[in-house]
Design goal:
By secondary structure, the protein is mainly alpha-helical. The protein is built from 27 helices and 2 strands.
């Protein structure tokens, strides 16, 4: 229940949002010609049946579009008012869309990326098991020892670790395990770790742009736009490294007071004492479990890294077609089963109950559903059409301006929407740009904007939501103000760097 002091604010904001949403969708009309025709045809393929602008501009569609946009923005608004409301708000939005007949329940259920949900549940449960083996505590000690008590070195090490794991095994697995490591740093040192969690998320998302496996957006565009791994290495990996350097340089400036306090409370002498206490506390059996856990973690990372090849092998062995993304969803469970020899088969229920951040999982599912409703209703198509209009005049399209607008729009939308849904909705625009003489820079602009834009807010990407949920599970609350204090400047600089990179390198 929303507290009384915020109830009137929530009702007022929601009412204004709904009115503006319906008005905006009624005003925006897409003609069935030129770019508008391509956008409408793409929307019709989602709806499986329509032929002209009359359908997307009809009053029935406008009602669906206004409701989809209005309820989605209401969820965002209530979340901004208080992070405590995000679960209630998301369930409110989904329920309203279904029971008002805006979208059928079977369609909205189909809009969920269930392979990602399964992967999330598995990685969280596996993280709980590895943590019980004291694996992350061991890694935390190693990271602290390597930092030699200097916060700037610790920042660089955590950033590099988050960046590398993300490009190698994906953003979700990366942030899950780096967050566990940071929580153990907190237990060992009792210093504030919220800025470190935010930094690790920013670095994770930054790394996820480098290779297709790092982010669902990369995988989607790799297949949709036929972007090769070598193209990612040339056009995305260098930018990812450049923006990682930006983060490492900017963070000490944005968190100067925090790092000064951190250095005052964590000397090299204290780290040496912490390390000695940890090593002497390990019994022979516990040391065996730590080593076993490290092996399991390494095997998991390797399996994720060779997932495509593993899918091909399973396909040949079983004589069936095995999708690599679907197989990836089950990879954590294979390691969980193997870990039973150390953890105990009878304790698997404990790992699922205590290790999985179930409220975040539900929130994820609701966001996928809300994002799909924007695609289904045609709201995303109308936003896409506006993008093209803003970069053209007198029949002339400025491609450099269009790439920049596309990047900025995808970044802005990805800061509050499921970024994969945003990119799916905007891909027809990029395809249209390429078809009328534009370069593949349109696709790269979508990739950069969708991934880096997710850094802006606590709900901007999968990694953000996972990190915030895990932090709350450990009784650490990260508010929007605390997030924006670091992310707003850092992400804006990343976006500017990405625009410059798009116009000078990706366009060639």
């Amino acid at each position: 229940m929303v507290p009384t002091d915020n109830a009137s604010k929530a009702v007022l904001v929601s009412a204004v949002i709904m009115m503006l949403s319906f008005a905006a969708m009624a005003l925006i009309k897409i003609p069935y010609e030129g770019v508008g025709k391509s956008i409408i045809d793409s929307w019709c393929s989602v709806r499986a049946g329509c032929s002209d602008a009359a359908t997307i501009n009809s009053w029935r569609s406008i009602v669906e579009q206004g409701a989809s946009l209005g309820f989605f923005l209401t969820v965002i608004a209530l979340t901004v008012i208080s992070m405590d409301y995000r679960y209630y708000a998301s369930l409110l939005g989904v329920s309203a869309l279904v029971f008002l007949g805006v979208i059928s329940p079977q369609l909205i259920i189909g809009g969920v990326e269930w392979d990602l949900i399964l992967f999330l549940i598995g990685t969280m449960a596996l993280a709980y098991i590895l943590r019980s083996f004291r694996v992350f505590e061991y890694l935390a000690i190693k990271v602290l020892e390597a930092s030699r008590g200097r916060p700037v070195i610790l920042v660089a090490l955590l950033s590099l670790l988050s960046w590398f794991l993300s490009l190698a095994v994906g953003e979700v697995a990366s942030i899950t395990y780096v967050a566990m490591l940071i929580f153990d740093i907190y237990r060992l040192t009792n210093v504030d770790i919220k800025p470190l969690i935010i930094l690790s998320v920013l670095a994770t998302n930054t790394g996820s742009v480098a290779l297709p496996v790092g982010n669902p957006i990369g995988i989607y565009l790799a297949f949709t736009a036929n972007l090769s791994v070598s193209a990612f290495i040339l056009r995305a990996l260098p930018l990812s490294l450049l923006n990682l350097a930006v983060l490492i340089v900017l963070f000490p400036l944005l968190a100067r007071n925090y790092l000064s306090e951190f250095e005052g409370r964590l000397s090299q002498d204290k780290i040496s004492k912490l390390a000695a206490a940890f090593y002497t506390s390990l019994s022979g059996r516990e040391y065996h479990r730590v080593r076993g856990g490290l092996v399991l973690l390494l095997v998991f990372l390797v399996l994720v890294g060779v997932n495509d090849q593993l899918a091909g092998l399973v396909s040949k062995l079983g004589g069936i077609q095995v999708g690599s993304h679907a197989l990836l969803a089950f990879t954590p469970y294979l390691i969980i089963v193997v870990s039973g020899t150390l953890f105990g088969a009878s304790k698997m229920g404990e790992a699922l109950e205590k290790g999985v951040e179930w409220p975040s999982i539900i929130f994820f599912i609701a966001l996928f559903m809300l994002g799909y409703s924007l695609l289904w209703s045609g709201t995303a198509s109308k936003l896409a059409y506006l993008t093209v209009l803003t970069s053209s005049w007198s029949g002339y399209v400025s491609f450099p301006l269009l790439y920049s607008i596309l990047l900025i729009l995808s970044a802005a939308l990805s800061s509050v929407l499921d970024n994969l849904s945003v990119i799916v909705a905007l891909t027809p625009v990029a395809q249209t740009i390429v078809s009328i003489g534009g370069a593949t820079a349109a696709y790269w602009a979508l990739l950069y904007g969708g991934v880096f834009g997710g850094n802006y807010t606590p709900i901007g990407s999968s990694a953000n939501i996972v990190a915030v949920g895990l932090a709350e599970k450990n009784r650490i609350r990260i508010g929007w103000g605390e997030w924006l204090k670091i992310a707003l400047v850092a992400t804006s600089v990343e976006i500017l760097v990405a625009i410059a990179w798009t116009l000078t390198v990706a366009v060639s």
